Amino acid sequence: MGEKKRGIGRRAVLIGGGAAVVGGAVLARDELRRAWYRVPGVEKDRVAGRLDHPGAVWTAASPANWRLADRPADFTIDRVVIHVVQGSFPTALKVFKDPGHGAATHYVVRKDGHIAQMIRELDVAFHAGDRAMNERSIGIEHEGFVDRPQDFTDAMYASSARLTAGICARYGIPVDREHIIGHVEVEGTDHTDPGPHWDWDRYIRLVRSAPAPTKNGGNGETARTTAS
């Protein structure tokens, strides 16, 4: 997990008469558009902890494990990344709340189908190990171990598939293996999850058949807090 840094691109530097003029006026337009809500006195209209998925329960990840964004206005969301935590549901919540961990997913799914939302979908979670993939994706963690197929229960598959169906509907993401991927498929990653026992054919079939909510984004539910 985490986020590999990349340099600031397309930043113009005007040099003349021995003086360098560097500032907001020379930033590329897309960078300005992505950075507007960071300007002092400008704050995006948002409700902290508002649920994006009906039925999820809010439990916040450490702010050190994600960054503020305004997706999909600033970054197009076109991928869902499937993870397996290599541990229990409480372990996932604990490490994602730890500022020293450096990573977290938007959602965590328990074996019984319970879903915790830890980061708003409009924000960038540090989950894929690659900055560009983090910016374009929603990360879903699953309780269990990659070498234990019994950890991937019917309830987990069904609940996770409904979650992914909603995400795909909200952002117009095609329901296929090009756009719904495993952590192992992220370029440059050293992770192997969700592993050989994750039934991709079954999962995609469940996503396609799941009832999906509106494409209009978060449902505006009041956040409910779950115990860790």
From TrEMBL:
Q: Which reaction does it catalyse?
A: Hydrolyzes the link between N-acetylmuramoyl residues and L-amino acid residues in certain cell-wall glycopeptides
Q: Please state every residue range assigned to the domain named N-acetylmuramoyl-L-alanine amidase.
A: 66-195
Keyword terms, alphabetized: Cell wall biogenesis/degradation, Hydrolase
Recorded E.C. number(s)? 3.5.1.28
Per its UniProt record, what CDD domains does this chain match?
Answer: PGRP
Biological source species? Streptomyces ficellus
Family matches, as Gene3D superfamilies: Peptidoglycan recognition protein-like
Q: What class of enzyme is it?
A: hydrolase
For this entry, the protein name equals N-acetylmuramoyl-L-alanine amidase
